[in-house]
Specification:
Order of helices and strands: EHEEHHEHEHEHHHHHEE
Strand order of the largest sheet: 5-2-6-1-8-7
Number of helices: 10
Low-confidence stretches: none
Number of domains: 1
CATH superfamily: LigB-like
Number of strands: 8
Shape: globular
Largest sheet: 6 strands, mixed
CATH topology: Protocatechuate 4,5-dioxygenase, Chain B
Length: about 260
């Protein structure tokens, strides 16, 4: 009997996460130690979005430095994980079986993918494929995408959403200390976590109306959409694991979720 892989949502923070000692880098390393090592990863990142779904079939995806104005050392980082074209094509087939048109591209790993992967799997020995998100579509759409991908978990594939549980850069203060966090961040994340714990899918999919300060926390929701794909791919009776790493830059909550049976600290 095989054990299904858990699904994850990662708050990947700023691109500087791997090199900034003030950021909670160790938390991602610790998280990986509590997870089964997957055969491959299917990553849905907030930083690859297309009009309709696309999968990356690259055999050796490039490391994309899709940001500007950061220290030179960040642009020198390479994450040479192999691609997972078979996983990409399997994901595409599952979506097509649901009537969804899917493109195939030789896309690299954007920083929403390689930044957390670098910390969690520093040996770059887990193959990674990416699936794009569609910000013009809502949470329910991305939940349905995840639901279509659920079978991958029986094949050793870990479905990972990478974004940010709160993401309003206009509210961010890059000199702020963790204790300077906007209290509305906690009000939003507490509501979201309580609904996750209750498996209240209807409320979660309607978060923009029901969650406190939802529009303030997510003026646009591309950084939250990956969580709904991870949630859709999870079991109906998932066990919720929460890893809260604090709030940084006043407005960015660094909270990771595991949907499965793995413990997190």
């Amino acid at each position: 009997m095989t054990t299904r892989t858990p699904t994850l949502f990662l708050s990947h923070g700023a691109p500087t996460l791997p090199i900034d000692p003030s950021m909670p880098r160790e938390g991602f390393t610790a998280l990986a130690q509590h997870l089964p090592k997957p055969k491959s990863i299917l990553m849905l990142s907030a930083h690859w979005y297309t009009q309709r779904p696309a999968v990356s079939t690259a055999t050796q995806p490039e490391t994309i430095h899709d940001f500007y104005g950061f220290p030179r050392a960040l642009y020198e980082i390479q994450y040479p994980a192999p691609g997972a074209p078979e996983t990409a094509q399997r994901a595409a087939a599952l979506l097509r079986a649901q009537g969804v048109e899917v493109d195939e591209e030789a896309h690299g790993l954007d920083h929403g993918a390689w930044v957390p992967m670098l910390l969690m799997f520093p040996d770059a020995d887990v193959p990674v494929a990416q699936l794009s998100i569609q910000p013009r579509n809502d949470a329910a759409y991305h939940f349905a995408v995840g639901r279509a991908l659920r079978e991958l978990r029986d094949e050793g594939v870990m479905v990972v959403g990478s974004g940010q549980i709160t993401h309003n850069l206009r509210q961010a203060d890059f000199s702020a200390r963790p204790e300077d966090a906007d209290p509305r961040v906690a009000e939003f994340t507490d509501w979201f976590e309580s609904r996750l714990a209750a498996r209240d899918i209807d409320a979660l999919l309607d978060y923009r109306r029901q969650a406190p300060h939802a529009v303030l926390m997510h003026p646009t929701d591309e950084h939250l959409l990956p969580v709904f794909a991870a949630l859709g791919a999870a079991d109906d009776d998932y066990t919720l694991g929460v890893q809260s790493l604090g709030t940084f830059q006043r407005a960015l909550a660094m909270t990771n979720y595991v949907f499965g049976s793995a413990s997190v600290q």
